[in-house]
Design brief:
- It is a single chain.
- With about 120 residues, this protein is mainly alpha-helical.
- It has a domain at about 60-118.
- It has five helices and no strands.
- The protein has helices at about 1-10, 10-20, 25-30, 40-75, 80-115.
- Helix 4 runs antiparallel to helix 5 (about 80-115).
- The longest helix is centred in the last third of the chain and has 38 residues, at about 80-115.
- The radius of gyration is 27 Å and the shape is elongated.
């Protein structure tokens, strides 16, 4: 056991592992992925951020819709819980409609900016 510990801790074994560049081959992978030398314009970056934000909001609203449906199904005739469930479903559907309209508008604006600055 002591011999294996000495072998693992030997300077030769450590220096060989540290001598390798951790970024070796990364540029080649980037070139194959089509990312080498690519600059991201501001409108593309804004478009990506908008897509991420709208996607997260959409996921949250779908989760709220599912929670509202579950509350409705498990209300067991309780008028108060049924009313809360209907309100949650209605609010989630209105939110989803607003998100879809906002996404379409933002996509149009970012697309128009992309065409204007080309």
């Amino acid at each position: 056991m002591l011999a294996s510990l000495l072998v693992l801790a030997s300077p030769l074994g450590i220096s060989r592992a540290w001598a390798q560049d951790p970024l070796e081959g990364l540029e080649q992978v980037g070139e194959q992925a089509g990312l080498k030398g690519e600059t991201t314009d501001l409108y593309i970056l804004i478009g990506r951020i908008v897509n991420i934000v709208f996607s997260l909001l959409g996921i949250i609203l779908v989760i709220l819709l599912i929670i509202g449906g579950t509350m409705w199904m498990t209300s067991h005739g309780s008028e108060e819980q049924l009313k809360r469930a209907k309100t949650m479903i209605k609010d989630a559907l209105i939110g989803i409609i607003i998100i879809v309209i906002s996404y379409a508008l933002a996509r149009f604006v970012v697309g128009a900016l992309a065409e204007a600055f080309k």
